[in-house]
Amino acid sequence: MAAVRFIPLFFILFSTHCFSQSDEEALIKLKKSFIGGNLDNWVLGSGACEKKWVGVMCSGDNVTGLHLADMQLTGEVDIQALLQIRGLKAISLINNSFTGDIPDLHKLTNLRAIYLSKNKFSGSIPDNYFEKMGLLKKVWLDDNQFSGRIPDSLCQLPNLMELHLELNQFSGQIPPLKYPAMVRDLNLSKNNLEGEIPESYLNFNASSFEGNPGLCGSILGKECEYGDNKSGQKQESTSSSSEGIDGSGSGSNSKVLAISIGSVVAIVFLVIIVVLARKRRREDEFSILSKEPLKEEVLPVKVPEAESTTRRKPSESSRRSRSSKKGSSHGGNSGVTDLVMVNEEKGEFGMQDLMKAAAEVLGNGGLGSAYKAVMSNGLAVVVKRMKEMNRLGKEAFDVEMRRLGKLRHPNILTPLAYHFRREEKLIIIKGIAQGLDFIHTEFATYEVPHGNLKSSNILLTENYDPLLSDFAFQPMANPNLINQGLFAYRSPEYVRSQQISAKSDVYCLGIVILEIITGKFPSQYLNNAKGGIDIVEWVQTSIADNQVEDLIDPEISHGSNSIDQMVKLLRIGAGCTESNPDKRLGMKEVIGKINEVNV
């Protein structure tokens, strides 16, 4: 019997060793195909993972990524060598001197990320190049000399999240995106592209397409000439929306802004109409939202900024101008919840009026989220939470908004008011963590003390202090329905083995932290797979690829000197969302780590 047990053990140890050695041999073979670079510690037998070979990323003893950026490499990329590294998921050759056609990386069908930026690759890319790379999420080919059409197969990747093709010589029309809701980062600028920009790209800013004189379409504000092949790029219009978040309000002093944390934390500039406002309605309102591919009760969804009633622009009316005097739109020193009126045709109203309005999600668009609010006096307005509005300072922004507010035309929707502010994400995160810690202390005997922590159950006071709601209901809930109603029951341990604990709350806290720092709506909130981003996998992949800073919401990082502190918060969020609860941070540990962050 001893021999019987020994043989399998020996086999396991032997095969693991061989696999690791196979990776090493493949790396040495790859090294020989390169010219230049500092790969001196790539020495066979020294242990690529154990000795941390330069640019080699591992999971255990297996090589999972190659980060060979900025190494002055040239020569060939030995694809046969790379094929021997079975666990390889990401390769970065950024800022080297490789030339010629794109390497045959398409043979590496398990790749999740390709970074070839800032080289001298040239020529066209075969149309079917990406056909078998269904797992690919990130493709960075920018700043090379690629030419010809953008491959159709690239735009049909089901998991594509990041696409950078700028600063090349791509030509022809842009293929439509087959899965536009997945793509969160795209840049096709400074090429030779032409024709109408397909509808599946409407969620992106004009800056993603600038430097292509032949392009036209609504994104660029440039009409396409029908004589010039306007083409069938009438692609699959991106289903009205794909991501979202949510909120509610009350009266007087400690009134809660009808803004759920989800919407607030996801942005820096809230504009247009009363931009920002809104939120948390009644329970039946949530069912309306759940019809969207966004999320059942999340208000901030992004919408094709089209909708109707009132696209607002800046001006800040003071907090007190809840619906009063004309002239309250001067605002620089008003409180954080002030509105600035720029058009008084519909009368005046303030943030409090807006907070009490019934809200309904409209959808999403390239510049932000939109929802319709009907106030108590019957006035219906469209509230749009704008993103990427950080080009101007507050004063210049106000000037532009007032100019827009003066426009008058029967076919133009003129903005009424705006709300402009930057938010302190760290304070919000600290408040949420402290509130959850208190709940864990008060309800320490409960299986899962909070049970339903998510952005739509976090409200903000007038001063943006977070207030946690919907907690400690687990003992009272119908056990047959509890797994459908409480978010903690979507934690990995419950999905796997129906186990639930206080660590499930920590998982939920991690989702909220990642949502705040990335500005992305988590698919974890949804009952189905439609909409949102698998924020846990996305963060884990980016950390493994050494692309952590790219995760931070640009609206938070813009002009910030605290990127390293934001990265710490991201890592805390990642630590909270470990799939194994035994490896997950504890509540007190989370509090301690957050208190060490100083943004």
| Order of adjacent strands in the largest pleated sheet | 2-3-5-7-9-11-13
- In angstroms, what separates the terminal alpha carbons? 61 Å
Strand content: 15-25%
Query: What's the total count of β strands?
Result: 23
CATH architecture of the largest domain: Alpha-Beta Horseshoe
Q: What form results from the Cα inertia axes? A: globular
Which range best describes the helical content: under 10%, 10-25%, 25-40%, 40-55%, 55-70% or over 70%? Answer: 25-40%
Question: What is the count of structural domains?
Answer: 3
Mean pLDDT: 73
CATH class of the largest domain: Alpha Beta
Count of helix runs: 15
Question: What do we call the CATH topology of the largest domain?
Answer: Leucine-rich repeat, LRR (right-handed beta-alpha superhelix)
Within CATH, the superfamily of the largest domain carries the name Ribonuclease Inhibitor
Membrane topology: Single-pass membrane protein
GO molecular function: ATP binding; protein kinase activity
Pfam families: LRR_1, LRRNT_2, Pkinase
InterPro entries: Kinase-like_dom_sf (IPR011009), Leu-rich_rpt (IPR001611), LRR_dom_sf (IPR032675), LRR_N_plant-typ (IPR013210), PRK1-6/SRF4-like (IPR046959), Prot_kinase_dom (IPR000719)
Brief overview:
The protein is of the alpha/beta class and 599 residues long. It folds into 3 domains: 2-216, Ribonuclease Inhibitor (Leucine-rich repeat, LRR (right-handed beta-alpha superhelix)), CATH 3.80.10; 256-418, no CATH class; 425-596, Transferase(Phosphotransferase), domain 1, CATH 1.10.510.10. It is built from 15 helices and 23 strands.
